[in-house]
């Protein structure tokens, strides 16, 4: 018996950096979907599809691991637009045509949801729950 695990449970292996980055990206995008009350099973499947695709992408370009959250957010946003419409709707502009926030930078670290109409950062990817509701 392992003295670190007296009940015979195997020690949990730490996740590889790639897996950590993919799990983090998934969690951030899921948090935004939950915050905007659109985390239905079929929408969560879109997140999983993106994570699968981005796993291959980051295996080809490991330096891009820091960009995964923004890329997964954009992938899900694009897939939602094709199936359901704009997401996430801008909470900053109460009048005029409803419009979606965009992820900036398109390919970079520290992605944010931005309203280009008002020219403001609304929330970090994963932070829509604290940015108000739309």
Description:
This protein has 134 residues and is mainly alpha-helical. It has three helices and three strands; from the N terminus they run H-H-H-E-E-E. The chain is globular and about 55 Å long. The model has no long low-confidence stretch (mean pLDDT 88).
Topology summary:
Blueprint: H1 17-35, H2 41-60, H3 68-83, E1 102-104, E2 112-115, E3 120-124
Antiparallel strand pairs: 1-2, 2-3
Helix pairs in contact: 1-2, 1-3, 2-3
Characterize the main sheet. 3 strands, antiparallel
| Helix/strand structural class | mainly alpha
Beta-strand fraction estimate:
5-15%
Number of strands: 3
Radius of gyration: 17 Å
- Helix segment count? 3
Q: How far apart are the termini?
A: 54 Å
Tell me roughly what share of residues is in helical segments.
Answer: 40-55%
String of helices and strands:
HHHEEE
Give the overall silhouette. Answer: globular
Strand arrangement across the biggest beta sheet: 1-2-3
Mean pLDDT: 88
Low-confidence stretches: none
Task: List the main descriptive attributes of the protein structure presented here.
mainly alpha; 41% helix; 3 strands; 9% strand; 3 helices; 134 residues; three-stranded antiparallel beta sheet; single chain
In short:
The chain is mainly α and 134 residues long. The chain has 3 helices and 3 strands.
């Amino acid at each position: 018996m392992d003295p670190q695990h007296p009940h015979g449970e195997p020690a949990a292996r730490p996740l590889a950096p790639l897996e950590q980055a993919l799990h983090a990206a998934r969690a951030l995008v899921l948090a935004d979907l939950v915050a905007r009350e659109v985390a239905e099973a079929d929408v969560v499947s879109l997140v999983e599809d993106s994570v699968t695709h981005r796993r291959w992408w980051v295996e080809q370009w490991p330096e891009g691991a820091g960009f995964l959250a923004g890329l997964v957010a954009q992938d899900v946003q694009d897939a939602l637009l094709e199936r359901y419409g704009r997401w996430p709707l801008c909470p900053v502009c109460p009048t005029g045509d409803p419009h979606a926030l965009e992820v900036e930078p398109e390919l970079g670290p520290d992605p944010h949801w931005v309203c280009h109409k008002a020219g403001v950062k609304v929330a970090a990817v994963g932070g829509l729950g604290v940015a108000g509701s739309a």
